[in-house]
Amino acid sequence: MLPAKKFADLALSMADTDTVPHFDKQAFRKHTKIFATLHPVTLVAMVKLTPEQQSVYLQLPGEIFYPASGAWGKAGCTHCNLKMINTKLAKEVLRLAWGNIHLKKK
User: Fold this and answer.
1) 81 CB burial (10 A radius; 0-12, 13-18, 19+)
2) Pairing of strands 65-67, 77-81
3) Distance separating the N- and C-terminal Cα atoms of the chain
4) pLDDT value of residue 82
5) Segments in the chain below pLDDT 50
6) Nearest 5 degrees, angle CA 24-CA 68-CA 22?
7) 23 phi and psi, to 5 degrees?
8) Which of 17, 73, 63, 16 is nearest to 7 (CA)?
9) How far is residue 73's CA from residue 103's CA, in Å, rounded to a whole number?
10) CA angle 92, 11, 31 (to 5 degrees)
11) Entry's InterPro entries (predicted)?
12) How confident is the model at residue 101, as a pLDDT?
């Protein structure tokens, strides 16, 4: 299990990252672009992966990762069950999500 505060700390450790409220969640963004969100009550986070990256994580055993519903999920938005994820895996997907935002041109 990964506590919500630990996930938030990992996200905020990415360069140029800040946090803002996003509906009932906490959003993590770089230069106004959200790369992850956290719902601290349900212990579910979302990371913006590419569809290719998402397909890799959806193959992992257990129900750690699952796609967001609708078009967001098809675009790569992936929910993470913090009750089942470990720190190493959380860092890995956060780095990917942050990098996906970082590499996009404005």
Assistant:
1) middle
2) antiparallel
3) 36
4) 98
5) 106
6) 20
7) 55, -120
8) 17
9) 20
10) 115
11) YjbR-like_sf (IPR038056)
12) 87
Give me the residue spans of the domains in the chain. 4-76
| Torsion over CA: 54, 59, 63, 69 (sign) | positive
Q: Which residues pair with 44 in a beta bridge?
A: 39, 81
* Residue 11 to residue 48: CA distance in whole angstroms: 12
How is residue 39 written in tokens?
A: 């719902």
Q: CA-CA distance, 46 to 65, in Å (whole number)?
A: 9
Residue 2: closest CA among 85, 62, 89, 88: 85
Q: What is the secondary structure of 20-55 as a DSSP string?
A: EEETTEEEEEETTEEEEEEETTTTEEEEE--HHHHH
β-bridge partners, 78: 47, 67
Separation between Cα atoms, residue 31 and residue 66, nearest integer Å: 27
Residue with tokens 């990964």: 2
CA distance 53 to 101: 14
Cα distance between residue 78 and residue 53, in whole Å: 10
**DSSP state at residue 92:** H
